[in-house]
Specification:
There is one protein chain. By secondary structure, the protein is an alpha+beta fold. Helices cover 40% and strands 14% of the residues. It has one domain (6-113): Zincin-like. It has helices at 6-18, 74-80, 84-102, 107-113, and strands spanning 31-36, 48-51, 68-73. Strands 1-3-2 form a three-stranded mixed beta sheet. The chain is globular, with a radius of gyration of 14 Å. The relative contact order is 0.22.
Length: 116
């Protein structure tokens, strides 16, 4: 697929966010979403990444911490997609996948659920 400019990627991202499953954002008040051009060198092929403390691992002392983050890797998503429709779908799937990590769901279970 040809390169997509930042403005068009943002439009597809906004559409993917609007299409998230209802209620998925219910416990997302301290999570920030970022878009980076490139994945980190230690994981060059990933589409997205969750960095934080999953809700299932938090205790009563959790608080006053920086937000958890979800990063999407724009160039990998574009390279992976067949066309813009597929790109929008992969953005949505990647966001759901990373949100699931925030909820404490691991990769094995995500693959079983079809969100791998």
């Amino acid at each position: 697929m040809e390169m997509i400019d930042d403005a068009r990627f943002d439009e597809l991202l906004d559409a993917a966010i609007r299409d998230l499953p209802p209620g998925i954002e219910e416990f997302m008040d301290n999570v920030a979403l970022f878009v980076d051009d490139e994945a980190p060198p230690e994981a060059p092929d990933i589409l997205g990444c969750y960095d934080g403390i999953p809700l299932t691992e938090r205790d009563g002392s959790w608080g006053f911490v920086p937000p958890d983050t979800i990063s999407l890797f724009k160039n990998n998503l574009i390279d992976y997609a067949r066309d813009e429709e597929h790109l929008q779908e992969e953005i949505r799937i990647t966001i759901v996948h990373e949100i699931a990590h925030h909820y404490g769901i691991d990769d094995e279970r995500l693959h079983e659920l079809g969100w791998g």
